Amino acid sequence: MLKILLLSPWLPWPPHDGARIRILETLRFLAQRHEVTLLAHISSPEEFEHVESIREYCANIEVEMLSTAPLRRMGRLGIGLLSGYPIIQSIHFSRRLASRLASITAREHFDIIQVELSMMARYARSISPSCSAKTVLATHNIETQRFQREIPLSPWGLRRMALVINSLLFPSWEQKSMAMYDGAVAVSEHDRDWAQNYLPPGCVSLVPNGVDTRFFLPDRPDGASRSMVFTGVMDYPPNVDAVVWFVNEIFPQLRAHYPDLEFDIVGAKPSAAVLALAARDGVTVTGAVPDIRPFVDRAFAFVVPLRSGGGTRLKILQAMAMGCPVVSTRLGAEGIDVTHGENLLFADDAPQFLEQIGNLGASPDLGQHIGRAGRELVCSRYDWQSCLEGLEQLYLKLLGNPQS
């Protein structure tokens, strides 16, 4: 049994986005055989009640408040920039959490310290010098690449200005962050190949995103459906761009052929741009829902019109596990070993989306085939239990015990 300290930018509850889901599944997996301490930010006193929801997976949970109030965020940003740190690391850095980390690593023994997401990487400098633990950075995506993809799609404003400043002033911040750790975890082969440039050979482990195939089960009603669905946290810029582009450029043409077609945008924190889409005929913006499964069950197509972002998308794995045929850009399905026409349909522009969604609408047999094959793929390759086994293998290798 290993003693593991896991540092997270949030409590992974409720698990309403990909990052929180991955962190929660990591805790569940590690708790089966190891003793885990979780150290995390919270942003409001109300979040204390969520601690009990994950208590069974942790020997100890310690939290520290990180205010999201604009003035507090700007203060952290200013201090960080003056200290030479990029915007994303500055906003997520708390001196109180850094002090808590220094204290706990000075008084307790840990075998592994795992830090979630590159934006938290600078906390490695706060680990006590007396701590002998091996350090692991869990990259959920390559942030610098995600930002580069987002810049040309972002309207001019504060967001785009911040992205440009980061790219100009801190072009190599993520590489420098990687080099501060003994090992790293990547979610896709592309991300692993990138990370291997900045760590010793063999110190980067591929640990793909997965899905709970016992929770996300096929339960599709009989009969034709005219509903499509997209799920995700709807203030996340790549998600916002995806649905705005789809509704503006693709959905009207689809409605011209299929007047009863509907599009459900399902997810918490819809931005103003997303809320405005609800005024369009056939478009529903749900906001937060307790369970996405009913919306996916009733859809004849799960659309992923992503044009930016990084990592691998849990939304695709969830839809495939439920037997819902997925139509995605190649970038959207990045990192998932799918085959066009077999277990997923690719579409990278408006004409291709029109073609593939039209094919599904015209051929229920095609949808059933894609759905069944998608379910078979995730059950054989992307169940969380098998995906996360690479974590233990990396830990043991870093500790000098690869055969255990």
Question: What's the gist of this structure?
Answer:
Helices cover 40% and strands 15% of the residues. The protein has helices at residues 18-31, 70-82, 87-91, 95-107, 143-150, 158-169, 173-178, 189-195, 237-257, 272-277, 293-297, 314-321, 350-362, 364-381, 384-387, 389-398, and strands at residues 3-8, 35-42, 60-65, 112-116, 134-138, 183-186, 204-206, 227-231, 262-266, 283-287, 301-304, 326-328, 345-346.
List the helices and strands and how they pair.
Layout: E1 3-8, H1 18-31, E2 35-42, E3 60-65, H2 70-82, H3 87-91, H4 95-107, E4 112-116, E5 134-138, H5 143-150, H6 158-169, H7 173-178, E6 183-186, H8 189-195, E7 204-206, E8 227-231, H9 237-257, E9 262-266, H10 272-277, E10 283-287, H11 293-297, E11 301-304, H12 314-321, E12 326-328, E13 345-346, H13 350-362, H14 364-381, H15 384-387, H16 389-398
Parallel strand pairs: 1-2, 1-4, 2-3, 4-5, 5-6, 6-7, 8-9, 8-11, 9-10, 11-12, 12-13
Helix pairs in contact: 9-13, 12-14, 13-14
